[in-house]
Amino acid sequence: MKGKGIALILLLVLCLLLSGCAAKNNPGAEPRLLLGFSQLGSESSWRIGNTKDIEEKAETYGISLMMENANQKQENQIAALRRFIAYRVDVIAFSPIVEEGWDNVLKEAKQAGIPVVLVDRTIKTEEKDLYECLIGADFYQEGVSAANYLLRKADRSGKDRFQIVEITGTEDSTPMRQRHAGFMDTIAGDERMQVLESVNGDFLKSRGAECMRYLLEKYGDGIDVIYSHNDEMTLGALPEIEQAGYMPGKDMIVISIDGGQEAIDILKAGKINCIVECTPMLGSTLMETALALKDGKNVDPETHPTEAVFSDEDDLSQIAPRGY
Length: 324
Ligand code: GYE
Prior knowledge:
Layout: H1 2-19, E1 34-39, H2 45-60, E2 64-69, H3 74-86, E3 91-94, H4 103-111, E4 116-119, E5 133-135, H5 139-157, E6 162-168, H6 174-187, E7 193-200, H7 205-219, E8 225-228, H8 231-243, E9 253-258, H9 261-268, E10 274-277, H10 283-294, E11 302-303, E12 309-311
Helix pairs in contact: 2-10, 3-4, 5-6, 7-8
The structure holds beta-D-fucofuranose.
């Protein structure tokens, strides 16, 4: 029996070696594939965490990564995709900064026979088969989760009116459109909820501060709820609320999305009431998908990570270090 056990273990090791799994953390080995990745920018801790995770997981999986940062410009992303095509990478992946305007360059990738993976955000197109799959959050659900938290809070408060201001992410991006739609669809019909105004903060801390300053000057203590599409803008807005003489988390309900360490610490301090998690750790799924595509395997059309909601309803001491 013992001989059989050893033989089985040896067979398993041999299979792993042959399957290339042993390529992980195996410096000097031939790259298993060349992946071209166009990252949209460095606008937030989320984005920086996403970039870091993709770089780390490329190394772990033995994948050669050609990454270009577009600095928030769609034209830079399109130029990068064209360079990847010219370089004949095995797989192209990118996080489209906005949903429209990708058809021509993706047709060129298709003609070159290079599979394309959408990471984080998606595109809108009438064309078929311009990309293989999407790996990213269900942003509509994130908006629904944010609104459901507010409805529960409203039920507990007994108040009959909640005037809401919304600070949105980059115009025409998937997270902006879907976080808005999920939230508004969920509060629709609840007569307690009144949206005063939505303003575009472009996912940037500085713009979040500007938006909050404008909203406070216009509505002042008429604001009961701030719904911000990401932590970066929330971190910009909070000091403005305090400088105007209000206590965020107490005088005004603050709801945010992403769940980076800095915002989670502020949630624990009671200045944010709810953070809907949006994980940037998409690197492993991307690498496994790229390897499957190179091997001609089918991949799932959409992969959404499981995401949590952290709020003042929970025991926040249990939240593990966030890593971004
Ligand atoms: O919420 C924000 C980043 O696309 C999910 O983009 C991402 C969003 C994220 O700038 O912080």
